[in-house]
C-alpha cells in the first residue's frame, strides 16, 4: 500500500458563462479498473483564473479482483492502469452545474518524482455514443472562436479614455466609439463590448443621445423614427438586454408561466384552425392573454430601470426637437423600443430572456407569436385607428383588433410612456402626474416618546404615490408628514421585541426612522412590497440596516450606543432598478483593441481618405473605398484615427512582450 499527494494549484483563462466570470470548482478522481475515488475543491466565486491550492491524498491498495497475484504484482499492475482525472465545473447554484473541461494524467508519470505542470483542458470523452448515427439527423454550425489576452488595467488607460470621451467629440462621427462601429464589418461585434464598457463607466446615455441625434438628421418622416438598424438603435437594443433582464422577469414571468404551463387554444387564423376548434372561443382566449400581458406592461413603469428611463428621456426629446410639428413623435420614439424591441421580443422568445427554461412547444409558440403581434400593435402610437387597422396583412388580426376600444388603450400607453421616459432629475413638467399606488389606515409611532404607552402610537391615514409617501390625520385631509420617494433609503421589517407589537415595519429616510404598525401581517407585507418597488430607482439605498429600534441610548439589536452607527443586518429588498452590473471593463477594452487590430487596414484607408478630403474639397466622380463611411469633419476624424492607430501599436508591443514572457516561463504537462 502507498499514497501520494495531488495538489491542485490554479487554473487560467476559464471561459465566461453567460458573459460573466464563472464560479469554478474542481473534482479530483483516482480512476482504475476497480476504483473511482473522487474529491472536490472549494468553489471560487466570479473568477476565470481561480487559485485553489488544495492538496488531496490517495492510497493505492490491494484490489479484490486480483486475489491470486502477489502484493508486488498487484501494485505494479494497478499503477499501470490508474490515472488521475481532474474535472473543472461551474457551480450552478440552483441550476445544473456546467462542465468546463477535464485532464487525465497516468499515475505512473507522477510516481517517481515531484511533478508540476500546466495542462490544457480537454472535452469530456463520451463512451455512450449511439451506433445508429443515421437516426440522429444533422446540424450545421457556424462557430467563431475568439481568444483575448487581457493585460493589467494600466495598459488600457489610453484606449479606455479615448473611448469614454466619445460623447464629447464634435461631430460624434469623429469619435473613437463611432469609428469602431464604422470599420467593423458586423456592427454587432463592436456594439456589445462598446455598450458594456460605456455602461461600466456611466457614459452610455450621452453617447446614445449623440448618435441618436445623428440618426435623426437622416430621418425624413416622423413615422419612421428609430425603425432601422442604425448604431443608435443597436446600442439601445443591447442596453435593454443587459439592463432590463430583471425588469422583464418581474413584469412578464408570471403571465408567461401561466401561458406556457396552462395553455389555452388561441389560433384565430381560419387556415390554421384544427378540426373541432371554435374561432370565437379562441379569440376570447387570445383576448384574455393579450389584456393580461398589456395590463402588466402598462403597470410596470415603477420597475423600469433608471438607466432605461434616462435613455428614453433623451430619445423622446430629441425626436420632439427634430419634428416639432408632430405631437405624437415623442411617444412613438419611445414605443418603438420599449414595445416593439423589448416587450414584444421577450414575449415571442421567453427562453432567450431567461423567462422560461426551454423553448415552448409549437402550439404555445404560436400563441406567444399572436400575443406579441398584438402587443406591438397596441404599443404603437395610433395603430388602433381605423385607417391603420385596414392596412393589416392578416384580415383575421384586423377583425381581432376591432374588439378593442381605441381610447382606453391609447390613454394607457400614453401614461406608461410618460412614466418610463421621465426621471427624477429630468421629469418634464406637466407630462406625467403622480401615480397613486396604495393608501390605508395604520398606526405610526410618535418620535421622542417612551417605549411603552398607548399614546406612543397614533392612528393615521397613509398614502403612497410614485412621488411621495405621506400620512394624514384623516382621509382627504392635508398631509401631516411627507417623505419624497427619492429620499427613502430602505424599507424593512421591525423586530417585534422593539415595542412588543406585531406587524411592524420601518421606513428609513434622511431623518429618524418612521416606525409603522399595520393591521395584520398581509397588509404589512403589501406595504413593504409597494414601498420597495417604488424606491428601487433610488441611488442612495442602504445596504445595511438595524432590525430593531434605537431606544434608551442604544440599538436593541447590536447594542451600539451611537444612533448613527451603520446597520448590523443586510437589507433584504429585491434587486434595485439601478442595477450594479458585473462588467469587466478591461476585458471589454481588450475586445475593442482586438477589433481595431483586425480592421487595421480599414483604419489606415479611412485615415488616407480624411487626408485626401482635407486637401481636395471638390466633387467625387467615382466611388471610393471609404464612400460608405461617415466623414463629417475630416480634420477631427483624422486626429482621432491617428490616436487610435498609435494606441493600437503600443498595445501590440505590450502583447508581444507578454506572450514571449509567458511562453518562456510556462511548462506544458504532456510528454
UniProtKB/TrEMBL annotation:
Pfam families: BTK, C2, PH, RasGAP. Residues 1-120 form the C2 domain. Residues 435-536 form the PH domain. Keywords: GTPase activation, Metal-binding, Repeat, Zinc, Zinc-finger. InterPro entries: C2_dom, C2_domain_sf, PH-like_dom_sf, PH_domain, Ras_GTPase, RASA2_PH, RasGAP_CS, RasGAP_dom. Residues 186-380 form the Ras-GAP domain. One of its GO terms (molecular function) is zinc ion binding. One of its GO terms (biological process) is intracellular signal transduction. This is Ras GTPase-activating protein 2. It comes from Acanthisitta chloris (rifleman).
Amino acid at each position: 500500500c502507498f499514497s501520494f499527494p495531488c495538489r491542485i494549484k490554479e487554473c487560467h483563462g476559464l471561459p465566461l458563462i453567460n458573459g460573466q466570470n464563472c464560479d469554478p470548482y474542481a473534482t479530483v478522481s483516482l480512476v482504475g479498473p476497480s476504483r473511482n475515488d473522487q474529491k472536490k475543491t472549494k468553489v471560487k466565486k466570479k473568477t476565470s483564473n481561480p487559485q485553489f491550492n488544495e492538496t488531496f491524498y490517495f492510497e493505492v491498495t490491494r484490489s479484490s479482483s486480483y486475489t491470486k497475484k502477489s502484493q508486488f504484482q498487484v501494485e505494479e499492475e494497478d499503477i499501470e492502469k490508474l490515472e488521475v482525472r481532474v474535472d473543472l465545473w461551474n457551480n450552478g447554484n440552483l441550476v445544473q452545474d456546467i462542465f468546463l473541461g477535464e485532464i487525465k494524467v497516468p499515475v505512473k508519470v507522477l510516481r517517481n518524482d515531484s511533478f508540476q505542470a500546466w495542462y490544457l483542458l480537454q472535452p469530456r470523452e463520451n463512451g455512450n455514443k449511439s451506433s445508429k448515427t443515421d437516426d440522429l439527423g444533422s446540424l450545421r454550425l457556424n462557430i467563431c472562436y475568439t481568444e483575448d489576452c487581457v493585460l493589467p488595467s494600466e495598459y488600457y488607460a489610453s484606449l479606455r479614455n479615448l473611448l469614454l470621451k466619445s460623447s464629447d467629440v464634435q461631430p460624434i462621427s469623429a469619435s473613437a466609439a463611432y469609428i469602431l462601429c464604422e470599420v467593423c464589418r458586423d456592427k454587432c461585434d463592436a456594439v456589445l463590448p462598446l455598450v458594456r464598457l460605456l455602461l461600466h463607466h456611466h457614459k452610455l446615455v450621452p453617447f446614445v443621445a449623440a448618435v441618436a441625434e445623428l440618426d435623426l438628421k437622416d430621418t425624413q418622416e416622423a413615422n419612421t423614427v428609430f425603425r432601422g438598424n442604425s448604431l443608435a438603435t443597436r446600442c439601445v437594443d443591447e442596453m435593454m438586454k443587459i439592463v432590463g433582464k430583471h425588469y422583464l422577469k418581474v413584469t412578464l414571468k408570471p403571465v408567461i408561466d401561466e401561458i406556457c404551463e396552462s395553455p389555452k387554444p388561441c389560433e384565430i387564423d381560419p387556415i390554421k384552425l384544427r378540426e373541432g376548434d371554435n374561432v370565437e372561443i379562441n379569440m376570447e382566449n387570445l383576448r384574455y392573454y393579450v389584456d393580461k400581458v398589456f395590463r402588466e406592461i402598462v403597470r410596470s413603469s415603477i420597475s423600469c430601470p433608471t438607466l432605461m428611463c434616462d435613455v428614453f428621456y433623451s430619445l423622446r426629446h430629441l425626436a420632439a426637437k427634430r419634428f416639432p410639428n408632430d405631437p405624437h413623435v415623442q411617444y412613438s420614439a419611445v414605443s418603438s423600443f420599449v414595445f416593439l424591441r423589448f416587450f414584444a421580443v421577450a414575449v415571442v422568445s421567453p427562453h432567450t430572456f431567461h423567462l422560461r427554461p426551454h423553448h415552448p412547444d409549437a402550439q404555445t409558440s404560436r400563441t406567444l407569436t399572436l400575443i406579441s403581434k398584438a402587443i406591438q400593435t397596441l404599443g404603437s402610437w395610433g395603430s388602433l385607428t381605423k385607417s391603420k387597422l385596414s392596412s393589416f396583412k392578416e384580415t383575421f388580426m384586423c377583425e381581432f383588433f376591432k374588439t378593442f376600444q381605441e381610447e382606453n388603450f391609447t390613454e394607457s400607453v400614453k401614461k406608461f410612456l410618460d412614466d418610463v421616459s421621465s426621471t427624477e432629475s429630468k421629469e418634464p413638467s406637466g407630462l406625467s402626474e403622480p401615480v397613486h399606488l396604495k393608501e390605508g389606515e395604520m398606526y405610526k409611532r410618535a418620535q421622542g416618546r417612551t417605549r411603552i404607552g398607548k399614546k406612543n402610537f397614533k392612528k393615521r391615514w397613509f398614502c403612497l404615490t410614485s412621488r411621495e409617501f405621506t400620512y394624514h390625520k384623516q382621509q382627504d385631509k392635508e398631509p401631516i408628514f411627507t417623505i419624497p420617494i427619492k429620499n427613502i433609503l430602505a424599507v424593512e421589517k421591525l423586530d417585534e421585541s422593539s415595542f412588543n407589537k406585531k406587524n411592524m415595519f420601518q421606513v428609513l429616510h434622511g431623518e429618524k426612522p418612521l416606525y409603522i404598525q399595520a393591521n395584520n401581517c398581509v397588509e404589512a407585507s403589501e406595504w413593504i412590497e409597494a414601498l420597495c418597488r417604488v424606491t428601487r430607482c433610488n441611488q442612495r439605498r442602504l445596504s445595511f440596516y438595524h432590525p430593531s429600534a434605537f431606544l434608551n441610548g442604544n440599538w436593541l439589536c447590536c447594542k451600539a450606543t451611537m444612533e448613527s452607527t451603520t446597520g448590523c443586518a443586510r437589507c433584504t429588498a429585491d434587486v434595485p432598478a439601478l442595477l450594479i452590473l458585473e462588467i469587466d471593463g478591461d476585458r471589454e477594452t481588450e475586445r475593442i483593441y482586438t477589433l481595431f487590430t483586425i480592421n487595421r487596414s480599414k483604419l489606415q484607408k479611412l485615415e488616407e481618405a480624411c487626408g485626401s478630403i482635407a486637401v481636395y474639397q471638390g466633387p467625387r466622380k467615382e466611388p471610393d473605398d471609404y464612400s460608405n463611411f461617415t466623414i463629417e469633419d475630416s480634420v477631427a476624424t483624422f486626429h482621432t484615427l491617428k490616436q487610435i492607430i498609435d494606441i493600437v501599436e503600443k498595445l501590440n508591443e505590450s502583447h508581444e512582450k507578454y506572450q514571449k514572457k509567458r511562453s518562456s516561463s510556462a511548462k506544458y504537462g504532456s510528454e
